[in-house]
Fold:
Amino acid sequence: MKILVCITHVPDTTSRIAFTDDHTKFDSNGVQYIIGPYDDYALARAVELKEELGASITALHVGGPEADPTIRKALAIGADNAIRVNVQGEDSYHVAQQIAAVAKEHEYDLILMGRESIDFNGGQVHGMVGALLNIPSISPVMKLIIEDGVAHMAREIEGGKELVEVPLPLVAGCQEPIAEWKIPNMRGIMSARSKPLEIVAPIDSESRTSTLKFQLPPAKGSVKMIGADQVEELVTLLKNEAKVL
Amino acid sequence: MSILVFVEGDQGKIKNSSREAVSYAAAMEQSPVVALALGSFQATELETLGTNGADKVLHASSAQLDQGIIQAYASVWAQALEQSDADTLVLAKSALGDAVAARVSVLSNASIGSNVVELPDTSDGFKVKRSIYSGKAFAHMKLNSDRRILTLNKNAIELKTDGESAQVEQFNPELNQQDFKVTITSTDRATGEILLPEADIVVSGGRGLKGPENWHLIEDLALALGAATSCSKPVSDMEWRPHHEHVGQTGLKVSPSLYIAIGISGAIQHLAGVNSSKVIVVINKDPEAPFFKAADYGIVGDAFEVVPKLTAAINSSK
Ligand SMILES: Cc1cc2nc3c(=O)[nH]c(=O)nc-3n(C[C@H](O)[C@H](O)[C@H](O)COP(=O)(O)OP(=O)(O)OC[C@H]3O[C@@H](n4cnc5c(N)ncnc54)[C@H](O)[C@@H]3O)c2cc1C
Structure:
């Protein structure tokens, strides 16, 4: 089985979000970059599937060389090789076209990625890749088992989940608890250095949106504290001041 | 050009978030607003979409569409876009809606704006404001294609309820068996419960509640308020609560009018999922809990004492 895991290179979840250049650029000053937490779940499940069934895992990232350490981390966690399409992703559609081009060339049985990136939270790339390849796309997937070429999945829905079956190939947008995050061990880190990271040129592709400006939410006003024995006052405030009851 | 709105049902009823999406389309003041409903619905239920601002409802009632098969839905939406001559498709963000919208954007050559938080600015092109960095910032985006799809966050617009009843038209899209490779073998949906993404009030519990046996505190308060319940990540990791209740960076992002956090410390990853709530109340026994900095109202106290009192106060104030 050939598995492709698409990873994002995103600010660590504790990063301070700020912008520069008149609110047109993300301020990456002092920001640590990580594999997107949802992509990390996808990768962890891929590594388990490899252990259970035997598989080869390719990690794919669309972006510039600044992401190479993040890609090496995916190799340390258990991907066998990696591909970086050397172009800055412009929007979900732009990235999806690049991923679909790689997938067409290598014909994977299973394409995994996170349900969404944690920077733009679009949650669109898996569906777009599925449509571009004309294969099923399922998201958000919280359980994934492969048996005789059929994927058995649990897909989260509002208020519960549904169980889904689909023959491979397919694209899945993953989330917890599909697997536990894996921390690379020393052997993984050592071997990642010599695993192949292929840099490929992008295909011609278009973006359909442009980001004009970023904005931070207004600062929260200060909190109004209420005594633990004055819950009636809270109810009154919620009714008359906040007007949410 | 019309606006098409995908409306989703839950147990036979149109979801409130879908009614909001219809109101949003109506507020764009570019008629007609055409709602699209797939699978079994009572016509009387669909007609009520008129009150929210729909001029017409297209109903594809084939039983094959009773289940949300992503690929099949995508083909049907794309056909509906053609048929209704729509340049804009609006829908409420949801597990199904998001997954389908992505495919439709490819099939119908549409730009997509996800997690949109307010009406578009159409003074020069088509611009939307969307939530990014898990609610920690916004982006103003231009959607450049002739067609676009908007997925809406909750509370992007006030619900309209004063429209006329809408006329329901049967819609018979072509169903291609190729689109039904996916089989949904079972659905496990808590009945009776208010759906978390739909809820206007959310009561949320964290590790401070000590164990699943204490969740009646959360549930009783939620019942008194007509609220949905949610939880922090460790709570769902330890299986005190089902995973679909988990909010935050790696869980559901919610934006209710009122979010009440009980025994939750307010880690940055938790805040990421709830910081777009209009009003936040925090109950925590630790006055230094970081959540107080993100709160509008706070009570320092033991949840086991404060929450039952609050529930009683709500009940007696009705
Ligand atoms: C990549 C990543 C993603 C993450 N994603 C999420 C996410 O999506 N959602 C999420 O929630 N977390 C997430 N986390 C975890 C997050 O960092 C915190 O660990 C988590 O939110 C803590 O949950 P908690 O507040 O319930 O528990 P704790 O941090 O243990 O806090 C418990 C709180 O309860 C209070 N308390 C204890 N007893 C009482 C009492 N009797 N009465 C009142 N208060 C009491 C304590 O003072 C404390 O503030 C993520 C972490 C990482 C690294």
Residues 39 and 51 of chain A are 19 Å apart (CA to CA). Residues 2-211 of chain A form a domain with the Rossmann fold fold (CATH 3.40.50.620). The mean pLDDT of chain A is 97. Residues A 13, 37; B 206-208, 232-235, 248-251, 263-265, 267, 269-270, 273, 284-286, 289, 302-304 surround flavin-adenine dinucleotide (CB under 6 Å).
